[in-house]
Amino acid sequence: MNNEDMFIEKKGTIATLSFNRVQKRNALNLNTWKLIPSLLKRLEDDDEIKVVILRGKDSTAFAAGADISEFDEFLKDENALNDFDLSVEKAEAALQNFPKPIIAMIQNYCIGGGCQVALACDMRFTSDNGVFGITPARLGVIYGLNATKNLVDTVGPSRAKDILFSGRFLHAEEALRIGLVDKVYPDDEIIVKTYEYANLLASKAQKSIKGSKKIIKIILDDSTMNKSEVDSLMKDAYESKDFKEGYTSFIEKRTPNFIDI
Are residues 183 and 223 in the same domain? Predict the structure, then answer.
């Protein structure tokens, strides 16, 4: 795989994972989909990293859909099409199962596959020039089951139908109003604000954050919760160094210094 399509930068406890196909507005090609799981695995194994920000290399775009130029090859070769679909599924799963917080920082275009990636992240922050759309109805294709579920879980069924049926574009304020994104910032502030929030998360108890993320995923995946798994997570947290530090700092009226990963 060619790593030039994506790259990692680290600063302290925050990692930035950037799409790097600026000349194509970061349209997602097969190589990019295949890179996502491998790069996330590196960040998962890096004990220094507590939060990941996913973004475009610059303000040109987050990701303006799939790289349609590859589709001619996929349509001629069923094996190539199956490889593409499987790579997309693996990338989505890697994002959703990533144990640390991952924030999509969106500037300008977040279309099609770009929305698919963003919806698989924990949160979505956008600049006020953000443009969103999911456009299978414009191409005559059907959005996948997992991607559709992520959309429905985020905005609800009626709004998901509107977005999918119409293929229309939504601007940042509407995206915020319907819950597609969590924050809207002026374009000249979004970088500072997103990294401020990432550092806030990095300062908290990581065992609590990871446990909460896992429980929320259990809730979304299945209406019948696995209570024994949740009980085990809670018991483990009470026995952790993070809990001892959080409790002691509360009693001592000081800022906690969480170190348990």
Answer: no
212 and 130 part of one domain? no
Note whether 229 and 105 are same-domain residues: no
How many residues comprise the chain?
A: 261
Take residue 189 and report the two structure tokens written for it.
């502030």
β partners of residue 104: 54, 124
Domain range for 177: 3-202
Q: Where does the chain show beta strands of DSSP type E?
A: 6-11, 14-19, 51-56, 61-64, 102-106, 109-111, 123-127, 131-133, 170-171, 183-185
Tens of pLDDT, residue by residue over 182-241, are 999 999 999 999 999 999 999 999 999 999 999 999 888 875 556 677 677 767 877 788
Domain contains 44? yes
